[in-house]
Amino acid sequence: MNETAAQEAITQAHHEEWARVVAALTRRFGDLGIAEEAAAEAFATAVERWPADGVPPNPGAWLTTTANHKAIDRLRRENKRDDKHKEAQMLSEDDPPEPLGAIEDERLRLIFTCCHPALAMETRMALTLRMVGGLTVPEIARAFLVQETAMGQRITRAKAKIKATRIPYRVPAAEDLPGRVTGVLAVLFLVFNEGYLATGADTDPVRHELTAEAIRLTRLIRALLPTDGEVAGLLALMLLTEARRTARVSATGELVSLEEQDRGSWDTALVVEGHRLVRERLATRIAPGRYQILAAINAVHTSARDVRNTDWSQIVALYNQLARLDPSPIVALNQAIAVAELDGPEVAIAAVDRLEDKLAGYHAYHATRADLLRRLGRSQESRAAYDKAIALAGNTAETAYLTRRRDQLG
């Protein structure tokens, strides 16, 4: 097998098997740190051996077995012959699996473990993105708009706390699920966003394996909590966003904005399912949460057959409602984008400029500002804003789009 084919197989295996391997090792050894390090060593071994030996028939099983051996070797080297080591030695692949609780998918069980209430919310999200999503520390840092070193320390501290406080790798009981779901939904939303608009310059601009996995896991939670409005809202939001995936990047690798997309290429089945979920939540007449409002905004966008038919007044009203629940600067930025369509760029630019102190390091802030300045005829300022957005954007398709828009200024 040539090296390129082997590398492609390893990349695919990492996308598909990382969370499974980490979950299996966490269950067996009861230590998230050991699980992560052994999984990483197994993939490193695959990089060395697969080009020469060929890709095994079952990559996931090969990686799990190799990682198990790596973990046991590490425990022996460190002479940690405590109860954990003895238990690991006694376990074998022939042992019957432990009884499953309310959650029967190991990756979903791992998410709930990483999202334990003893951890701070941001720590839960970062840890789960690393352990379950398989994202690198730089990718997670970009998602949180923080420095890479700070994010690495946060994840390290989280694993240390899990070990020190003996947070168990345990399936939550059914009655515990509602109280644990908020952090899980936040994590899945971040995983989906990383797939929908990848932040790494050395990755595909759209990572379908991440969006598909986020949707799959959200469907599982929906089956567990069928009456939870925010679970339904997040699923609807993902479906309506995923429906536009194939229209978002051109044949030349450039991001295609919503107003320029071929709406005929959107996935009709996903749009229909997303709209149905939104209508079901509206019919309950229960005050919606954040994800339900975001889903409703996307439902308005996907209801318009042409961008000129978009009901911007409804979108602005929904953003006003969202801002009361989530008065974050990013919500305010998106709110201003909608206001620009309804009341004009003059009104919107004033709102955007007020966000500079909070969003100076966020590429979308500068991209939004550049577009508004362009519409106002302030070309020199617009060019400067595009330059800042391009410097901060990590997505290759988005960089190509912003560069073209900047160059059109002349």
Automatic annotation (TrEMBL):
Pfam families xrefs: DUF6596, Sigma70_r2, Sigma70_r4_2
Composition bias (Basic and acidic residues) maps to 77-88
Q: Where is this region: Disordered?
A: 77-99
Q: Which UniProt keywords apply?
A: Sigma factor, Transcription, Transcription regulation
Q: GO MF terms on file? A: DNA binding; sigma factor activity
Ranges for domain RNA polymerase sigma factor 70 region 4 type: 111-162
InterPro entries listed in its UniProt record: DUF6596 (IPR046531), RNA_pol_sigma70_r2 (IPR007627), RNA_pol_sigma70_r4_t2 (IPR013249), RNA_pol_sigma_r2 (IPR013325), RNA_pol_sigma_r3/r4-like (IPR013324), TPR-like_helical_dom_sf (IPR011990), WH-like_DNA-bd_sf (IPR036388)
Question: Mind listing the GO biological process terms from this record?
Answer: DNA-templated transcription initiation
Is Transcription set as a keyword in this record? yes
Domain of life, source organism: Bacteria
Q: Which stretches make up the RNA polymerase sigma-70 region domain?
A: 20-80
All copies of domain DUF6596, residue ranges: 180-280
Q: Which family does it belong to?
A: Belongs to the sigma-70 factor family. ECF subfamily.
Q: What is this protein called?
A: RNA polymerase sigma factor
Q: Which organism is it from?
A: Kribbella qitaiheensis
